[in-house]
Amino acid sequence: MNILSAFVVVLLVMLVAVFLIPGEKKNAIRWTMAAGSMVILGLAGYLVWDFLAQREAGATDKFLFADSTVWYEGVINISYSVGVDGVSVAMIMLSAIVVITGVFASWAVEDKAKEYFLWFIMLSIGVFGFFISVDLFTMFLFYEVALIPMYLLIGVWGSGDKEYAAMKLTLMLMGGSAFLMVGIFGIYYFSAEDSGALTFNLEEIAANAAMPIEWQRRFFPLTFVGFGVLGAMFPFHTWSPDGHASAPTAVSMLHAGVLMKLGGYGCFRVAMTLMPEACKEQAWIFIVLTGISVVYGAFSACVQNDLKYINAYSSVSHCGLVLFALLMMNQTAMTGAILQMLSHGLMTALFFALIGMIYGQTHTRDIRYLGGLMQVMPFLCVCYVIAGMASLGLPGLSGFVAEMTIFVGSFAHEDLFHRVLVIGGCTSIVITAVYILRVVGKILFGPLYKIEKVGDQYNYVSEHHGEVHHYPLRDAIWYEKIATIGLIVSIAIIGLYPVWISDMISESLEAVAAMLN
Amino acid sequence: METITNLSPIILALPFLMFLFLGLCGNKLFKSNPNIAGWIGTAGLSVVAIVSYYIAIQYFWVEGKGADAYQQFVLFNHEWLKMTDNLVISIGFMLDPISAMMLVVISTVSLMVHIYSLGYMHGEEGFQRYYAVLSLFTFAMMGLVVATNIFQMYIFWELVGVSSFLLISFYFIKPSAVAAAKKAFIVTRFADMFFLIGILILSYYTNTFDFLKLTAVSDGHATLVNTKMCGEMFMGLSVTSIAMFLIFLGGAGKSAMFPFHIWLPDAMEGPTPASALIHAATMVVAGVFLVARMFPVYFFEAHDVLTIIGYIGAFTSLFAAIIACTQTDIKRVLAFSTISQIAYMFVALAVSGYTSEHEACLGYTASMWHLFTHAMFKACLFLGAGCIIHAVHSNEMNAMGNLRKFMPIAHITFLVSCLAIAGIPPFSGFFSKDEILVAAFEHDKVLYACQAFVAGLTAFYMFRLYFRIFWYSENPAHAHHTPHEAPMNMNIPLIVLSVFTCFTWLDKVFPFFPEKITADRVGYELETNWIIAIASILVAVVGIAIAWVLYLKKNDKPDMIAGKLKCLYISASHRFYIDEIYLFITRKIIFGGICVAIAWFDRHIIDGFMNLLAWISRELSYDIRDVQSGNLQQYAWGFLVGVLAIAMFAINY
Amino acid sequence: MIPVEAYLVVSTLLFFIGVYGFLVRKNLIGILMAVELILNAVNINFVVFNRFLYPDHLEGYIYSLFVIVVAAAETAIAISIIINVYRKLKDVRVDSINELKN
Amino acid sequence: MAEYLTSIDFAGLFTADNIVFFILSAVILVCGFMSVASTKLLRAATYLFFTLFAVAGLYLTLSYEFIAAVQLSVYAGGILVLLIFAIMLVKNLGTDTETISYVNKTIAGLSALAGTVFAFITMSKFRFISSEGANDAAAKVDMEMVGQTLMGTDRYQYLLAFEAVSILLLACIVGSIVIATKSKED
Questions:
Q1: String of DSSP letters for B272-308
Q2: Is C102 contained in some domain?
Q3: CB-facing half-sphere around the CA of A141: CA atoms within 13 A
Q4: For residue range B545-597, what is the model confidence (pLDDT) as tens digits?
């Protein structure tokens, strides 16, 4: 079997396995999940290794490990086609890491654990399927598969105003996919007007390059906005704060860590690669929008009081940078964009994991009511500081590599206006520092606030409608440590030794960048 | 040469590994006996120091001297991140006079601080963490000075920033420490942004990050920059100047030049030895080092920027010196003094020439020389201050007085360092400061006048500090709590550093700086300008004399003078309200204005629009729901009409 | 000889009389009766077309038989429902039967 | 239509066949209309009875005796009786007068009228060609043929439909019993 299909198959096997285990055997379910996601991680590691080895050996195909099976031929031609280039390999690796850490982060889910994990696997199937597909229709199918479980995961296992958030998130993303579907069918029907059979295959469409410019002009914005909604592009980003705030920990991780990357990846893979002329014409509009995202998200994050809102707005800013760099349309900037996806995926997953772990104990995420946690849960807090440092672009962690590649690459744009925008984007590194340090200073450092010490035990004291609650606080336990350490190690590996991954991505982007210039 | 090349990775790798080791396992392994962590850190750093000395000695006296100038060696250069074929970030090791000198400075001060901290930080919670971060800092600072390309410098630039943050917030339970750390990080980060933009502009035109290529000089031009950027204008300004000015702003942030100086005094919230290392001796001179590193580009292609640097430096030194006269927290006095002295170094660079023929590049030499001497005596002062604080448990001058009886070693070393900073021969500060003044005198009389005045002020406030601590009146608190001499491991560093300070005059006999550290790396013969030297000694003596009069014994003269100059005094003691202005801008305008407005806009306009869409579709749905009334006949009617319409359509077409 | 159009005119009129009845009647039994009219009109059409156009086969013939049978079945069911509804609600007017709506 | 009317031989209008047809049509339409317009339900049922009767007559004129018989026995004999029973069972239904608003009447009437007009227009567009057997109005349908058509499995034979209808009828019998039976809780 093709190694790429193996990802989906393994997940399907997990799905069946978890389905068959009785719901009350929670540990069995958890370990099944852990084992399955270990296999996924192993597969992903092997994929990276084999991909690099094949490239080393001189494989020059755009997509390696390609395979294709016809699903349906007739009125429309759909096939299940898989294949990966450096970009998708990076994304698959990211997904595998986030999935396994997500499993450990949801170890403590007690309520309807079986159903939770079932939907979790569904979500993962969608994500992996999306990244391995090179057929537009299959891609879209997996995209939808990834979106729907979100609704249930947030609506059932979420917190706060979860129904509203779930509904909003799903509706906005569905609105995006409505645009997307029009775009995809537009690409399908107009991409091969005089050069043969209609196809959904990305590679063939790109090779034909037969889409007339007037149709590109119509379908490029639809496709780009369709994916852009998921990529939290201004002004379609408002699902993100509410959605993330209400989602359970692992779902926020997976959503911000991986699902939002589907947006950037799709913009690049579908909208820009297949409609390069329109992209060149219309890029400036989206560059301005994403440029706004970058600064706007960062400023908004500065005054939020809910940890998850801060992080969600920070995601808006960082993901804005992804699209911003993609639209600069040169190899370096695009490499930076993909690196940023990777880096943001990891660090935002880490953030959400940590926030979830803190919230699980204090039952509040409001930074006004937290303080001095460093004394209480040093492990989690140190991890939080590291995540913050990654987010504000400290060298040695992944954020720096990505941001600097983006800035250098984007600044290489020959147009002055674009360069000025890049300078505007640079301000985000300062604002990021402001809101990250605000949180770090407020909740981690400083004296204990609303926390009392009884013997060796710290308790969080909260008053709710006149009732006083005492929540015992503790540092991370083993599964939480696995989740956070896994992510931190990944962040540090990219941050300390980025050249291999940046080369891997950059190589795959060469052809596209050449086409776009 | 091979030995140096083989040894050089140790300088970067060892501190980094120490950081990882102590940071990751320090707390676990050395739970019962944290001191082991300190000893391990110190031992590691001793190795680094020995290697640094060895490399520096080898470089200066054996390998470095080329045909006519000192060569620039790149000992290793590993590709770290490849952006384009030309724009490659490497992590490398460049050996040239200034980096070799910096290796010595950093390893010396760092080692002293490591040793000193064994005593000073003894028993503190987070002792292991402290040593881990010290290692991180040493690693970052070493990486910064040996950078082969400007981006490597930026990387380590950020790393020193974060280690500074971590050290300032060492006592993270204290809100003031946290606030200071935040302030330091954000202000420097703000400046770093300009640095980054400068790098972007520079690399956009020159298509390289490499220092060797950027600073290569031929025919009186920095060749690469000249060919690629000459004549490029943006909004009426030369792009080269803009880029170089932005890069200088980055340096100004780290080196606490006006208006980015506000973080440094607050940074004194950190442990005193860390202040000595980071906020006095090494990190804060990174800006000076940066300008020195890029000096050919500044000198040939952006001379206007160099002039601006000179005036900013002069203003800052004056400004900081005035404030230093009014502070009562001893560490703050030292902090402002640091700002003032670093500004001196900038002025020196600004008034320097490039070639060594007419001693024109005296400024460059003097700047580096002052950097060196300042690092030593300022570290000594800080460590001395640490001993004092350790003894009296306060930073305030009022808690001190007459301490000379209790702590003789601290007293002597402090006095030596004060004399050095005041510019009294034969202590080190005299030589370096004198060269700066000579260079300034030859270049620009206004700058000279300013700097000479500041020299006097320096002597005054340093001796004010000295007298207030060691003389003045007996503090009644000492009666029941006798201050005691610090332990030996704290005193040794003081002695070592003051020895460095005392014996710099040997340079006159065996010339080192003028011969080895010059802008074009060709040595020259230094002649002492006696007129200026005597003038500056006189100024210093006057300063000391005033301090003597006012502060030797407790009297009411200082208050009287303060009363006379009330306005100046109050605003100076409030640091001219710069902090308040910053606070106003950040709190009121950026937070209260921009951020709140954007957040409101997001929630109410953008999100409101989305909710409006949802509301509209819901209302429409309710309206449409009425059509589905459940009334059979209504349906039948609809059915009839529909069938008729369709049939009509079908028949007619 | 009566032309086919004459039959069709009758059936058309009968059909729309039934439709009118269906639309205006308030109680279920009345509606049911109107439906019977409609079915009869359709039956006439079936039979007439069979007779005039395809006299050799019996398609329309058989269909109208089936329609009659189905109508009978439908009526039986409808009336049992009506009786039941009446038992529950004491009313058989269509606009008062809206239990399922809420 | 006009062309068609001019082509009619008015002298030959008053044949027996025609007179019978006119009378039956008149009964069908008038009674049909009365059955929907009558305000009293029992009367409406009575008018319906006449209509059904007349439709059976119409079948006879086409020489389809069997179907006429079925019409009489099932409709007039079965369905109508059921209807009348229902009316009787529901209190006051037979005697209450039903008031219908003019608005409803107007809308329904106009819709029906529109439908009629549309149907006529459509009819006028087509010319129905009677096959030859149509003229042989007296040609009887052999009962054997009816039986074979119902029970045969060849082309134009409807055993399957017959079976389906029988199952349907069975279902209806069972269904109506179940529905109409009073459940114990009531």
A1: HHHHHIIIIISGGGHHHHHHHHTHHHHHHH-HHHHHH
A2: no
A3: 15
A4: 988 888 877 777 778 887 888 888 888 788 888 888 888 888 888 888 888 88
Please report residues of B whose CB lies closer than 8 A to that of A449.
Answer: none
**Does residue A380 come out as left (phi exceeding 0), alpha (psi in the -120 to 50 range) or beta?**
alpha
Contact (Cβ atoms closer than 8 angstroms) between residue B91 and residue A496: no
- Evaluate if residue B49 carries a pLDDT over 70: yes
Residue of C25, C95, C99, C102 best to disrupt the B interface, most CBs of B under 10 A = C95
- Any idea which of A66-75, B146-155, B538-547 has the lowest mean pLDDT? A66-75
Backbone angles phi, psi at A135, to 5 degrees: -105, 125
Q: Do B81 and A404 touch (CB under 8 A)?
A: yes
Give yes or no for residue B526 having a pLDDT over 90. Answer: no
pTM: 0.83
Determine the angle formed by the axes of helices D16-37 and D41-61, rounding to 10 degrees.
Answer: 160
pLDDT tens across B164-213, in order? 999 998 888 888 899 899 989 999 999 999 999 999 988 888 888 888 88
Cβ atoms of residues A406 and A340 within 8 Å: yes
Measure the CA–CA gap between B576 and A55, rounded to whole angstroms: 63
Q: Which domain holds residue D50?
A: 2-99
- Number of A–B residue contacts, CB under 8 Å: 129
Closest C-alpha to D31, from D80, D97, D92:
D80
d(Cα B496, Cα B492) in Å, to the nearest integer? 6
Mean of pLDDT over chain B: 86
Helix (H) or strand (E) holding B471: none
**DSSP state for residue B399 in the 8-state scheme:** G
Chain C residues whose CB is inside 8 A of the B647 CB are none
D27 lies in some domain: yes
- Reduced to 3 states (helix: H, G, I; strand: E, B; else coil), residue D129 is coil
CATH number of the domain encompassing residue C11: 1.10.287.3510
Partner C contacted by D183 (CB < 8 A): no
Residues of chain B with Cβ-Cβ distance to D114 below 8 Å are 644
D and A touch per CB criterion (3+ pairs under 8 A): no
C-alpha distance from D19 to closest chain C C-alpha (Å)? 10
Please check whether residues D89 and D158 belong to one and the same domain. no
Q: Check if B583 contacts A (Cβ < 8 Å).
A: no
Close Cβ partners of B607 (under 8 Å, ≥ 6 residues apart): A238, A242
Q: Residue C22 and residue B633: Cβ atoms within 8 Å?
A: yes
Give the containing element (helix H, strand E) for B222. Answer: strand B221-222
Confidence of residue D2 (pLDDT cuts 50, 70, 90): low
In this prediction, residue A111 carries a pLDDT of 83
Query: Vertex D26, ends D20 and D27: CA angle to 5°?
Result: 90
Q: How many domains does chain C have?
A: 1
Chains A and B contact (Cβ–Cβ under 8 Å for 3 or more pairs): yes
Q: DSSP characters for A419-487? A: HHHHHHHHHHHHHHHHHHHHHIIIIISSS--SEEEETTEEEEEEEETTEEEEEEE----HHHHHHHHHH
* Alpha-carbon gap, residue B172 to A285, rounded angstroms: 45
Lowest mean pLDDT among A154-168, A497-511, B63-77, B120-134: B63-77
Q: What band does A45 get if pLDDT is binned at 50, 70 and 90?
A: very high
Domain count, chain D: 2
Q: How far apart are CA B203 and CA B223, in angstroms?
A: 14
Give a yes or no: residue D177 inside a domain.
yes
Q: Which residue has the tokens 């997904």?
A: A95
**8 Å CB contact between A183 and A223:** yes
Peptide bond into A241 cis (omega under 30): no
Facing residue for B173 by CB, picked from A235, A242, A372: A372
User: Is residue C72 in a domain?
Assistant: yes
